[in-house]
Amino acid sequence: MEDLHSALKDRNLAVSTVPEKGRSLFATRDFYPGEVIISQEPYICVPNNSSQKRCDGCFTATNLNKCSRCQAVWYCGTTCQKSEWKLHRLECDALSRLDRDKRKSVTSSIRLMVKLYLRRKLQNDKIIPSTAMDNYNLVEALVA
After folding, report:
1. Which of 3, 4, 56, 91 is most deeply packed, by most CB within 10 A?
2. What angle, 0 to 180 degrees and rounded to 10, lies between the N-to-C axes of helices 108-124 and 78-97?
C-alpha cells in the first residue's frame, strides 16, 4: 500500500479513509478544468462477444486476422499481437486444447477471469512487471 501512496503522491493525489464514506481519493493541489488527473492502462481487458469481431489489443474492427493457433482471438496486426503475446501465449495454450465447439462457447466473462488469473501469475513469476497501481490484491479477492 505504501507504493500506491507514493505513486499517487507523485500525481498530487492521496488516498484517505473518511468516516461514513470509506476509502477516498483526494487532490493535494488545485487542478485546472480539462487537466488529466490520472491516466492508467487497464489491468486487463477483453472485447465483448458482440457480432462484430475486434482486435484484442486496440479493439479496432478493421483488418483483423485470427490467432493462427487458437483461432479464437483477433488482432489487427503484428504490433497488437506482439504487445499482447506474453499474456495471450498462456491463454492460447488453454484455448487451443479445447475442441472447436467448446472454444466458441468461451464468453468474454470467462476470458476476462482467465486473463486476470494469468496476468497475476505472470507478475508473480516476474515475467511481466507489476506497478504500484496494480498492487491492490484485487485478483486474489475475485478468485477467492
Report:
1. 56
2. 100
Distance CA 115, CA 89 (A): 11
3-state secondary structure of 27: strand
Length reported for the chain: 144
119, 114, 90, 137: CA torsion to nearest 10:
20
pLDDT value at residue 136: 55
Q: Spell out the residues 6+ positions from residue 5 whose beta carbon is closer than 8 angstroms to its own.
A: 14, 15
Is the separation of the CB atoms in 4 and 133 below 8 Å?
Answer: yes
Contact 103, 70 (CB under 8 A): yes
Rounded to the nearest 5°, which phi and psi values hold at 60? -70, 160
40-50 pLDDT, tens digit per residue, is 778 888 988 76
